[in-house]
Design goal:
The structure is a single chain. The chain is mainly α. The termini are far apart. The longest helix has 25 residues.
Amino acid sequence: MTLSDQALQELEAALPTCRESADAELLFDTLNLLGIVYGELNQAETALEWHQRALALAQSQGQTRLLAISHANLAGRELDLGERWRRAGREAEARDALQRSLSLNEMALEIAQRAQLQRVLIVVHSNRGAALALLGRREEALVAFGQQLRLTEASGDEGPRLQRAQYLAQMYREAGELDMAR
């Protein structure tokens, strides 16, 4: 059993207790984590369902931070789905998923900017840059990755740098710019 499988079991076991609790943020975190774990298990559709449940709860609570996180996580799952469709040669489905990712990222961006949620902004710019790169919108992708880099450097959070580097390398490889891809 992998760590993701174990986490999934524990989250699903905790879910009834979280639903009975008066703590909406605890339930949100559990729903959101279920989406993340299913995403890690490459079950994008199931991950989307859990993230949509988290979004519905965030909307009912009207909590800005939870709304931003929900939209950003849904955007990330749509990005995952777009990548999967692209690898399978299903370009129309990939493009649709990547467009949905961009729309969700825009919602998350607006909310996170208003509330000054730096960590969410880093994720949003990273996912936005990746979706734009996969859609072949290179200049816009570079702007998004630049914004993500500035926020990452200012926050000291190095985690998103690897994802940005991977998408930049892929974008340059696909453009035939192998020197830049290195």
